[in-house]
């Protein structure tokens, strides 16, 4: 069973105990989350360990060419730290590259890379999502059998997406997200001496959204604080479990 979006008015331990009851009663075997923030997922996992109950095993999140930050920066770290799986939806980005919606970025002329690989644009997008090692499952939808056959054909394209191919796609999209490999001692600047071991360490992410505005983003989960740094400016915002 999947919990779609968290409720800030409902205590997390109440949600955890409700699913523990369903599991113990044999009504479900596992449970997961959908569209939860990384902070909420990790807090839920910590509560489950404290209470000795079964934690969520997966997160269902949006992931496509134009929505990358959460999956590529945060979910990969959650997978490595606590083993939570990831299912993604909307691999063809709501049809933005298929002419179904107005595309202000006007990327269609640039995305002829699919022809180079001998596939359709939809197949390339699905294969690109599956190629992400953090993702264990990609959810697709089709309006008829022909569309379904086309999307299933994406499996043949995955082997063609070499690291070089992925880099070329990133150059076309110009929106790849980056994370630094070092910790930043922002806690000292905020007046805190230590970070409790049961929470994430203070971690800085170098994020380039593609518009030239380079930012360093940091989540301090034990204070539920989001810190965004741009040259000459440091901003601190309380999250209230709304960060995603």
UniProtKB/TrEMBL annotation:
Record domain NADP-dependent oxidoreductase: where: 3-172
Record organism: Lepeophtheirus salmonis (Salmon louse)
Keyword Thylakoid: no
GO MF entry, a single one: oxidoreductase activity
Family: Belongs to the shaker potassium channel beta subunit family.
Gene Ontology, cellular component aspect: voltage-gated potassium channel complex
Biological processes annotated in GO: monoatomic ion transmembrane transport; regulation of potassium ion transmembrane transport
Swiss-Prot/TrEMBL keywords: Ion channel, Ion transport, NADP, Oxidoreductase, Transport
Name of the protein: Voltage-gated potassium channel subunit beta-2,Voltage-gated potassium channel subunit beta-3,Voltage-gated potassium channel subunit beta-1
InterPro entries the record matches: K_chnl_volt-dep_bsu_KCNAB-rel, NAD(P)_OxRdtase_dom_sf, NADP_OxRdtase_dom
Transport found in the keyword field: yes
């Amino acid at each position: 069973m999947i919990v779609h979006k968290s409720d800030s008015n409902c205590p997390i331990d109440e949600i955890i105990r409700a699913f523990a009851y369903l599991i113990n009663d044999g009504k479900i075997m596992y449970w997961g989350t959908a569209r939860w923030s990384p902070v909420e997922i990790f807090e839920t996992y910590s509560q489950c360990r404290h209470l000795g109950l079964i934690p969520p095993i997966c997160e269902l999140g949006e992931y496509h060419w134009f929505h990358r930050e959460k999956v590529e920066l945060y979910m990969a770290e959650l997978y490595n730290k606590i083993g939570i799986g990831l299912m993604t939806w909307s691999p063809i980005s709501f049809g933005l590259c298929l002419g179904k919606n107005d595309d202000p970025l006007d990327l269609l002329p640039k995305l002829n890379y699919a022809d180079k690989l001998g596939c359709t644009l939809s197949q390339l997008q699905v294969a690109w999502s599956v190629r992400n090692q953090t993702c264990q499952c990609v959810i697709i939808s089709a309006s008829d059998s022909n569309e379904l056959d086309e999307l299933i054909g994406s499996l043949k394209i995955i082997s063609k997406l070499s690291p070089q191919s992925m880099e070329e796609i990133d150059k076309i999209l110009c929106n790849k997200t980056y994370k630094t490999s070092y910790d930043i001692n922002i806690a000292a600047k905020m007046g805190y001496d230590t970070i409790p071991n049961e929470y994430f360490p203070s971690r800085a992410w170098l994020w380039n959204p593609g518009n030239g505005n380079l930012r360093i983003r940091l989540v301090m989960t034990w204070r539920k604080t989001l810190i965004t740094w741009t040259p000459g400016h440091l901003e601190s915002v309380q999250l209230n479990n709304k960060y995603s």
